[in-house]
Amino acid sequence: MTLPTTETLNLDLDGPVLHITLNRPDSRNAMSLNMVNELMAVFESVRENTSIRAIVLRGAGGHFCAGGDIKDMAGARQKAAAGDSDAYISLNRRFGEMITAANQQPQVIITVLEGAVLGGGFGLACISDIALAHCDATFGLPETGLGVIPAQIAPFVVERIGLTQARRLALTGIRFKGEEALRLGIVHEVANDSAALDAALGNTLEAVRRCAPGANRVTKALILKVGHEPMDRLLDQAAVDFAAAVNGAEGQEGTMAFVQKRPASWNQ
């Protein structure tokens, strides 16, 4: 398959896994509008590709992402001064469109979090299916300390860790390390060094490979609908999807592999 050409991202397709590296190390991978648009393009290009089962997001140069790019704010200010009253709205909302697309991406999204995990980077951590962090990674929502708001990020933080903790983090701007992120439920695993972090990623990808790709897609879609649709309707559709899975190729292969005590065909 052909992936989009990118300037701010390094893309590496390794079998069923697409590795996306945010690649603006001089700015601690601050998220420019160009990076947002490139992420959108990559997500869209692989969305329906069932051969890609996992997407790994990480940052170059020892940092995940330090938040939004201040240069884009300056550019929006110039547009606003020139009469574009929607300049700030368009800039901010575009990030929201990207993080929504990432949240709804059918592949398993894995974030590998090192260094700065701030603002927009914090938001990406909160929409990932599996988040792995270095113990010394620094997390936080610094927006209110800068006189702005985490407009597109806050709703996803609430969904990740609940209203009470989201209030505390957003309204104080405090920064904290990996162990506290684990306690809050932002991340799922914390590693003490880079080797352990890479090992955790390897173990996670191995676990993903053991799961049927079609079943994972349907399961993720089901989970994301919880709280957004009436429970009875959700469970009715889940029963239909379950029957389709049992009678489908994956269900038959999974049952046969279990009986024959062998790995399923998708475990590769």
Question: How would you characterize this protein structure?
Answer:
The chain has helices at 33-46, 70-81, 87-104, 120-127, 154-161, 163-172, 178-184, 194-209, 213-225, 231-247, 249-259; strands spanning 9-14, 17-22, 54-59, 108-113, 116-118, 130-134, 138-140, 175-176, 189-191. It is α/β, with parallel strands linked by helices. The protein has 2 domains: 9-209, 2-enoyl-CoA Hydratase, Chain A, domain 1 (Alpha-Beta Complex), CATH 3.90.226; 213-259. The chain has a 6-stranded mixed sheet with strand order 1-2-3-4-6-9, with helices on both faces. A hairpin with a 2-residue loop joins strand 1 (9-14) and strand 2. Helix 5 packs across helix 6. The model has no long low-confidence stretch (mean pLDDT 95).
Number of individual domains = 2
- C-alpha Rg, in Å? 20 Å
Task: Give the biggest beta sheet.
Answer: 6 strands, mixed
Number of helices: 11
- Overall mean pLDDT score? 95
The helical percent reads: 40-55%
SSE string, helix = H, strand = E?
EEHEHHEEHEEHHEHEHHHH
Strand order in the sheet with the most strands = 1-2-3-4-6-9
CATH architecture call of the largest domain: Alpha-Beta Complex
CATH superfamily of the largest domain: 2-enoyl-CoA Hydratase, Chain A, domain 1
Report the portion of residues in β strands. 5-15%
Query: Helices and strands: which structural class?
Result: alpha/beta
Low-confidence stretches: none
Give the strand tally. 9
CATH class of the largest domain: Alpha Beta
* Global morphology: globular
Query: End-to-end span in angstroms?
Result: 19 Å
CATH topology of the largest domain: 2-enoyl-CoA Hydratase, Chain A, domain 1
